Amino acid sequence: MILLIIFGTKGVTSTVGSGPFWCPSCNMQQYYQHKRVRRYFTLYWIPLIPLDTLGEYIECGTCGGTFEQRVLAYNPQGPQG
Question: How many CB atoms lie within 10 A of CB 60?
Fold first, then answer.
């Protein structure tokens, strides 16, 4: 009898926050989602154990563009704009 065990890792994306921000791609105020990607240990393709955080990013809800978290501090009407 052969017992086949299938295991591995998989990246899982989750939303950890949202709100308004100035999207550099749309060039106007839009809503964003703050996303985090974590690596999970999988058994038979089911994510079971979180291992580490692979990264975080901001995604525009309108254009779908992705940006680093520092884009939330951008204000075109502020002193740097």
Answer: 19
Interatomic CA distance for residues 9 and 67, integer angstroms: 25
Tens-place pLDDT, residues 33-63: 999 999 999 999 999 999 999 999 999 999 9
Closest CA to 36 of 13, 18, 58, 69: 13
Tokens read off for 58 = 């901001």
65: amino acid identity, one letter: G
Q: What is each CA distance from 6 to 23, 45, 60, in whole angstroms?
A: 42, 8, 36
Half-sphere exposure of 69 (CA within 13 A, CB side): 9
Predicted confidence band of residue 74 (pLDDT cuts 50, 70, 90): confident
